[in-house]
Amino acid sequence: MKMLQKTESELRDGLRILAYEVNMLHGIFAYYPKLRESATSGDCLIGGARISEMPQFTENVYLESFLVHARNLIAFLRYNGKDTRHPLDIYAAHYFTTPEEWLHIRGEMPKSLKGIYLRAHTRLAHISLARLEDTPETKPWNLAGIVNDLKPLLQKFYDNIPLEIKGG
């Protein structure tokens, strides 16, 4: 199957959507102090409540929101042009002459992100028995690692898309 092409206008719109995803990921990460390595439950306040007093529901809302945005960004970056089931979706590969051009620029997806994508997919996007595989040792998410692994790939993307698409 051939990858569906996007218009210049659609690609510009896609950049605005991408910016939203990146801003949400970073905003949640910055706003939710428990996700920072330096945070301790006694020192961090969110909305006036100490993290140790934060209801599990509220904590899950922040975590799941972060993971949905991370999953969206990983999907955007990893698409190889072979699946056309979602014609309205936009991927990094759409911004290049061929999907292979983007894959060459991007290089190998970090294994950590492949694992995060699958884990978020089975834990958030589906009602899956995979949720039962989590143990207290494997359940925590390395959110700083996710942000750090996405950053260079997003930078490669932005550095290599055509100036006319960036609006410059």
Summarize the structure.
This protein is mainly alpha-helical and 168 residues long. The chain is built from six helices and two strands, in the order H-E-E-H-H-H-H-H.
Topology, element by element:
Blueprint lengths: L7 H24 L13 E2 L2 E2 L5 H23 L20 H8 L4 H13 L19 H18 L2 H4 L2
Antiparallel strand pairs: 1-2
Helix pairs in contact: 1-2, 2-4, 2-5
Task: Give structural notes.
α2 (56-78) packs parallel to α5. The chain has 168 residues and is mainly α. It contains six helices and two strands, in the order αββααααα. A two-stranded antiparallel ribbon has the order 1-2. It has helices at residues 8-31, 56-78, 99-106, 111-123, 143-160, 163-166, and strands at 45-46, 49-50. The chain has one domain. 54% of the residues lie in helices and 2% in strands.
